[in-house]
Amino acid sequence: MPIKNILIDLGGVLYEIDIQSTIEKYRKMQAPDAEPVNFSKKGQHEYFSLLDCGQIEIEEFAQGLKDSYSLEGSIDEIKQIWLELLIGVIPGRIEQVKTLAQRYNLALLSNTGRFHRDFYYPQCKPMFDQMDYLFYSFEMGVRKPDSEIYEMALRETGWKAEETLFLDDSKNNIEAAQDLGIHTHWIETYDDFEEMMNIYAGKNVPS
Fold it and tell me: Which one, of 7, 10, 2, lies nearest residue 132 by Cα?
């Protein structure tokens, strides 16, 4: 069946983030023998997941990281480093999203907390205005790659899995969507997004 709908991740797909820099900044706040900060696309400490699922707010998150990883900085410093994870909208993405919106129904599906959302929303509004739905994990109470978040998005939109394409920079998230019969395109690098545009918004659009 032809693709009619696209679910799109934010960080690493539409919006530049710097995970490694964030980890390094937290590491500099630790003693040399402290437990390494566990935050990556493949796995992370429960406080990152709790924040994404809206089960804690930013103050509790920062305190949790401080206690778990023996961070010597203040709560405000820990929060500021978490905010500095966000770099900005990837150049060209606003126009690309507008192009996709001419052909497909669009929805955002992002693992994100309220603290980050409130920061990036004004920058992303031109893209978000092109989308029919905005799904944030902190509002849904569940995060990728849990199958429930994809099922909730499909129920809310009324979209069929076999008519839906999912874009994400995490292989784990991609595989979880595939298990539900959703088409996927792994955005491992920025060039992969350009490839996706050539396939789904170019002259030879799959039917």
Answer: 7
In this structure, are residues 15 and 88 in contact, taking their beta carbons and an 8 Å threshold? yes
pLDDT digits (tens, 9 = 90+) for 138-157: 999 999 999 999 999 999 99
Q: pLDDT band for position 12 (50/70/90)? A: very high
C-alpha 66, offset from chain centre: 24
Q: Residue 44 burial (CB < 10 Å; 0-12/13-18/19+)?
A: middle
Pairing of strands 15-17, 86-89: antiparallel
Is pTM beyond 0.85? Reply is: yes
Q: Is the peptide bond preceding residue 145 cis, with omega within 30 degrees of 0? A: yes
- Rounded to the nearest 5°, which phi and psi values hold at 91? -55, 135
Say yes or no to pLDDT of 21 above 90: yes
Distance CA 47, CA 68 (A): 9
The total of other beta-carbon atoms located within 10 Å of residue 20's CB is: 10
Give the dihedral sign, CA 121/125/127/131. Answer: positive
